[in-house]
Amino acid sequence: MNNSGTNEFRYYLDLNRNGRFDTNGYQPVISENGLRTKQSNFYFGDPEWIGILEHPDQPHSGSNRFMARYAFLAVPAGRTLDINYSHNNARDTSKSPQVGFFRNQGVGSWEINLAAFFRDLNTNYWLGDSPAIPVGYHYRPTNFFVPSASGTAFQDALSILTNRCLAYFPGLNSVEGLFGSRGSIFQNDLIDEYADDRLATGLRLAVEGTTPTSRDITRNPWFGSENTNGFTRIDELFDTTKVAAGFVNGRLRPALTNSGTYNQNTFYRLMAQLGTDSLPANRGKLNLNYDNVNLETGQIDPSVVVGLTNWTPIRFFTNAADLMLRSQSSTILSAFGVAATNFTLSVTNIPIYPANLYVASVHRLLQLAANMYDASTNRFLLAAGTNSLHAPSVFRPLFGRRGTNIFISGFEEVTSTNTLRDPWVDLNVPALAFSRISESNPTNRVNVYGIPYVIGAKKGFPNFNELLLQTSVQVTRRMEVVRNKREDAPVFHQSYEIGVTNYLAMEAWNSYMQAFPRALQMIVTNSAWLAFSNATPGAIYLTNKSIFTTNSATLPPNGWKGQEFRVPLSNSVVFIPNSEFNFNPPRLEVLKENVSFDRSQGFPLPDWKLNITNRLQFVLVDSQSGRIVDFVNLDRVIGGMDIMREIVGATNAFGDAGLNPG
Q1: Section 443-472 average pLDDT
Q2: What are phi and psi of 270, to 5 degrees?
Q3: CA 384 → CA 104, 460, 560, 563, distances in Å?
Q4: Cα 217 to Cα 197: distance, rounded to the nearest angstrom
C-alpha cells in the first residue's frame, strides 16, 4: 500500500481501495446477494497499468525491459458537480454547528444539496428521506429553525464542508468584507444570496425586510465566498483527517467491498459526477511558466495567470525563495535552538547580526529558487553554436537594520560588476556596519563579508573549486646539563625553538571537456589574520600578523582549456621565522647563531596555540558582457592548531586534522 492508501497491484491501480480488480467494459450485473442476473451493463473500473519500454519502438524482450509504468483515468472535467463549491450550512455558522443546510432560491452553487447527491449515489448506505428513517436522509426546508435537515447524508456533507472551511465557519469572508459598502445591495435586492431567509412560497419574490429572518445580514459569514481550504483530488474522500470517519469507514468503504456491482461501482460513479475542477492540485503554488502572484496583495492568485505574463527573474526568485523559506523556517530555526513562535524566516527577513542565520540550509533554498528559474529559461545568450552559453541569473542581497539588528531585507538582480564598487561591510566591526547600513533605508545596497550573491546554475562555465589552508610548524627542544664540579648536583636547562609557515592557495576549475570560448576576468582577494599565543602563563599574545593578497587576471577566448585547473592565488608566508622561546618573561626572539638556554626553574612547558582566520572573495566575469558568472564570498574561514597537543600526539582541541590526521 502506498502513502496515499491506494493498493498498487501488478496490473492495476486499486483506486477505489476495495482490494480487488474491477474490470472495465460490459459486465454482467451482480445482485447484492452475489447472484448473477440476466442483465449486463457498462462499468468503469480500476485504471490498468501501461508499461513503458526502454525502447518503445521495439517489442518487449530480455534486452528491452520495461523501465516505468503509468495508469490514467479520464474524468469529465468541467461537467461535474464541484465538491468545493457545493453545499452550505447557512442556518448555523457557529464554531460548533449542527446540520443547517438550506436551499431557497437556488441563486448560487452553494445551494446545491451535496447530501442529496449522496442519497442518490447509493441508496443502500444513504437511506431514503422518510422521517421514520432518521439515520439516512431527511430534509425539512419549511422548518426554519435548526436542524432543518438530518441524517448521515447531511452529516457527511457537513464534514466535507467543514474541511473546506478548516472547521471554522466564522472565518469565512462576509459580503461586506468582500465588497465593502457596495455589498449593502444584497440587503434589498429581493434575492436570498445568503440562503438563510424564510422559504419563498409564493409566485412573487419576497420583499426583504429589516429583520434577520427576512433579509441578508452582509456582515455575517457567507458560503458564497472562497473557502479557506478545499479538495484537489476526489480520492481525498478516503482521508479520515479530511472527512468524517463514519463517511469513510461506515459507508464508502463498506459499499465498495460489499457484494453486487451496484455497490462495488459506487466510487467510480461518484468520480463521474463529482469533481474538483475549481481547485487545481497546484493551488497555493507558483506557476513555473507564468507569473501568478497578485501585484497588489502579494498572494498567489490563479486568475492572474490568464494574462500569461512571463516571470521576471527577480519576481520568480523572490517569490519562490519566500515560499520555501517560510515552509522550512521552523525546521531551520529549531536546529539552532531558536523558538519560531513569533519569528519566521522569509526573503525579507534573514537575520545576520548579532545572530547570523544565513546558514547553509538557507543558502540552499535560495540557490534552489535561482536554479529553478534558470532551468526554465535562456535569457542572455553569450555564445551560440553546438555548446551554446547563456548567462546565469545573479541576485544580490539588500540589507536593513532595526536598532542593532541587521538583516537581509530583499534581493535585486545583478547584471554588471557595478555592485562590487558598493561599500563593503565587516560585521566584526559593528560601529562601521551600523554607519553603512542605515536604519531609515530598508534596502541598503552594500556588500557584507561572508554573505554571497546567489547565482543560478548554468552549464558550460568554469567555477571556484577549493581553498587550501596548510600550516607547517617545526619545533625543536634542546636540553643542557651543567655540573661545574664533580660533587655538584647537575643543573638542567632547556631551549625551545619554533618556526611557523603558512601556505594559502585557491583553485578554480573548468570541469567541461571544451575550452571556454569567451574572455574571462578572474578577480581574487584574500585576507588572512594569524595569531600565535602562549596560554600559560597569562594568555599572552606574542605575535599577530595580517596578510592581504589580491590578484586579477584576464583569460582570452579559448584560453581556459577543458578540464584545466587554474590557481590564481598561491602564497607561502613565513609567519614565525625560526625563533627561540623564553619563559621569563614569555617572548619570542630571533634564533641566534649560538644556542641559548632558558634559565627558568624546573621544566616549564609552553602551551602554544595558533589561530588563523581567512576572508576570500572570488569573482569570475564575462569580459565582453560584464556579467558575473561566478561569485564566492567567504568570511571567518577559521583554522588553528594546538601545537603542544600535536607534539605529544593528542587530539587537536581545535577540531582540525592538524599534523595527526589519522
Answers
A1: 94
A2: -65, -45
A3: 67, 12, 18, 21
A4: 10
